[in-house]
Amino acid sequence: MYKVTWDIETGGVRLNHKVVADTLSVSPRPVFFEELDLLKLHELGWTYPHCEEPLLWACNKQYFYRGQLVFEAKGANLYNDATIEIKPGFESLTLIPVDMDEMLRRNKDILFLLESEAIEFIRDTFIDYSLASKKFEEFKANQLDYEALAAAIEKRTKRKIAIVKEDCDSFDLMEESIAQERGKKRILATKIDVFLASFSGGKDSQVVLDLCTRSLPPSVFEVIYSDTGYELPSSLDLYEDVKRHYSSLFPGLKFSTTSNHAPVLSYWDKIGTPSDTHRWCCSVMKTAPLYRSLKASGSNKQAKVLTFDGVRAEESTRRSNYNRIGKGVKHSTVINAHPILNWNTTEIFLYLFTHSLPINLAYRFGKARVGCIICPYSSCWDDMLVSKLYPQQLSPFIERIAEWSEREGIKDVENYIRDRKWKFRASGKFLTIPTQVIFKNSSANFFATVKGGKSSIIEWLKVVAPLTCIIEEERVYGDIKYKDSIYSYEITGTLSDYSFEVVGLKDLTLISSLKRVIYKAAYCINCESCEIECPTGALSVFPTIRIDTKTCVHCHRCLNFHDKGCIVANSTSMTTETNIKAKAGIDRYNTFGIHEEWMAEFLMSPEDFWENNGLGPKQVPGFKNWLKEAGIVDSKLNLTNLGKSLSQIYNDSVKITEVVET
């Protein structure tokens, strides 16, 4: 939020309201003796005390002492130490610790403004949503879902809509800008069951937790730490320290931990390693267990939660575009509030120092961000630190990657792991998945075959629409009532190997939903992720799949929360996928292979396809480019003569592949 310059006299940093001549372009982090020891600076001629105070500051891997660049660290990775390049004139340096008292005194006023604004934000957000819970009953009495109406209008008009209260005590909807002009305050109508401070063991969530304790009574929020199975030992230790610290100050503050019912490596075996394009572990191991633990009193219904978290814009380009309050960012039942969204790294550490809060030991050894033991987003520097600090905890994951790499014939496994190439592969690359799903669409019927299915297709079908079900020995049949139509379906085979057919189905929305149901039934491993999307508590996934038809409203949130409706299905290589790569590069297809099922869906009803299809938002542009370059549509997405012919032929039940071959 504020600009940072060096404070030569104290050996620290200064916060400034505006840009000055020596303003730093990167927010520096403090460097402690533990990191210097790990980099072996004491063996390179440097002298420094083992003290609590920081000795240097680092901007990325450049290290500064009292405003001067004194050395750089380069070339670190999982198997190799960093190379230290000491700058000329600093080969033999005696370090004096930062004068913490004076540095903090000089930054006191700006820090006060910074934390006061955050405290006010937390308090105002809590009050607004606490009142919203009361207003919810008024809206409920009016028999109108104002939040849903506002969301629908926003989607249609692309403008922010506010719920306001008129002088006659009635409620109305109007554009937010108009409401502001008329001096009308926006009324929230979202009932919140739980206010939460999410603690991750990192510096950012630690600051937010402390701000919450200074903003709110301890009885109105709780603290939950989600143990992913990847946690750094220092993060687990810090949680216990933090719990003891705040429990002694605020006995009424509730602390708890959550975790998935299965260990993380068991999911590696079923889903594959997390990758840079599919970091499934955050949902499966962290957020799903956390929010699944929060149910509305006396029911299986997900509690509506407002979480104060430590997200900061400085951390990534994507986060820099976040609003300070986000509804349904990751899960539909969760509102995320970001009190320190605009804080920088330096301000975070200054807050911790000012309030004498404990610091995760990993920061003292050089971790810029405290996350998991192994992560597809980690850097080579992180890999080096973790391998040195926590080799025992890291070993099972590296061994699993090495085992899979050798099995797949990777020639130089050590280089493959060292260069982090495992992070850039599709998650299911190394897995042998016996499950297969094949779709065969026509203009008349919807048909799919499944081999090696893992859960009940009959149970999952219940989320699509009301249906009847008659079960015979190796045959299940009945009707699906969708919108104003009734479709007959039939399932033949066994629980794991079967065919599924719906007669006379042309509705693209229903086709898309049925495909997602089939993927879920085929690949579901009870990971818990989709359960927390259910707004009524009708869905329960562990230990077995159960859908309560009395409470299911067929909203399809459990189907639409992820591509293909299932994390595992999306992560593994599907038999229906054809990887078509352009000669000039795959980038213009957004790295997606072109699926036969996409072509089937498109050719069945090309006029309606772009308004109603089963593709994800990132898949649509790539598919458009492919259709244009194949000559099937023109620049305005209208069918060419070739496209019209293919559509006609396809709807006469001739497969696309036969046309291409002839």
Describe the fold and architecture.
InterPro entries: 4Fe4S_Fe-S-bd, 4Fe4S_Fe_S_CS, PAPS_reduct_dom, Rossmann-like_a/b/a_fold, Sulfate_adenylyltrnsfr_sub2. It comes from Muribaculum intestinale. This is Phosphoadenosine phosphosulfate reductase. One of its GO terms (molecular function) is metal ion binding. The chain has 662 residues and is of the alpha+beta class. Among the domains are: 3-99, no CATH class; 142-189, no CATH class; 436-571; 577-661, no CATH class. The protein contains 22 helices and 25 strands. The strands form seven sheets. A six-stranded mixed β-sheet has the order 12-11-10-13-15-14, with helices on both faces. A six-stranded antiparallel β-sheet has the order 16-17-21-20-19-18, with helices on one face. Helix 2 packs across helix 10, helix 5 (203-215) crosses helix 10 (345-354) and helix 19 (596-604) crosses helix 21. The longest helix is centred in the N-terminal third of the chain and has 42 residues, at 100-141. The chain is globular, with a radius of gyration of 28 Å. 37% of the residues are buried.
